[in-house]
Amino acid sequence: MRPKTYPQEPLAKLRATKVDAATSALAKAVRSREQADRVERSNRKVGEDAEARVKATRDAERSALESGELRAADLERAEAWGARVEGDLAEIERRVANASSRAQAARDAEGVARDGVANARVDEVVVERDRARWEDGERKRAEAKEEEAASEAWRKPT
């Protein structure tokens, strides 16, 4: 007699496939989040470097102005430069904010993917436990059948 197969085998395979798919989605989400974090850090560094350069230049200009080395034309150029730098810094700040929001969205997506893996794994465990109960029941039925057969064989007069 052919051994019985677990009646929920197709469901078990489906649940295992869902766990694999959820794990792949999580890996992709982690890679996306890591990339978004790198971009955010890079943009922050660019902004910090730009602000440091602007501060150094302004300090040098202020020092030159205080010592009387600058003329009115120099001051006019400094004002134009300052306006342009403010625009550049605002653009850098916008990029940092944009990168930060993308990084947060990537972190949120990673969290959703982690939840998806956990849910898929829970579904898989439910089927694994059901399979274990079914196999235990089949084993007990087979043992009971063997005991009954042995008992009948012992009771039969020869």
Question: What would your notes on this structure say?
Answer:
This protein is mainly alpha-helical and about 160 residues long. The chain has a single domain (about 10-150), classed as Helix Hairpins (Orthogonal Bundle), CATH 1.10.287.1700. The protein contains 2 helices and no strands. The chain has helices spanning about 10-65, 70-155.
Task: Provide a short characterization of the protein structure.
By secondary structure, the protein is mainly α. The chain has helices spanning 9-66, 72-155. The mean pLDDT is 90.
Q: Share of helix among residues?
A: over 70%
CATH topology value:
Helix Hairpins
Q: How many strands in all? A: 0
Would you list the SSEs in sequence order as H and E?
Answer: HH
Low-confidence stretches: none
Sum up the overall morphology in one term: rod-shaped
The CATH architecture is Orthogonal Bundle
Give the integer mean of the pLDDT values: 90
Distance between the amino and carboxyl termini: 27 Å
Radius of gyration: 36 Å
Q: Give the tally of structural domains.
A: 1
Question: Total number of helical segments?
Answer: 2
The CATH class, by name, is: Mainly Alpha
Q: Would you tell me the structural class of the helices and strands? A: mainly alpha
> Hey, roughly how much beta strand do the residues contain?
under 5%
Sheet with the most strands, sense and barrel status: none
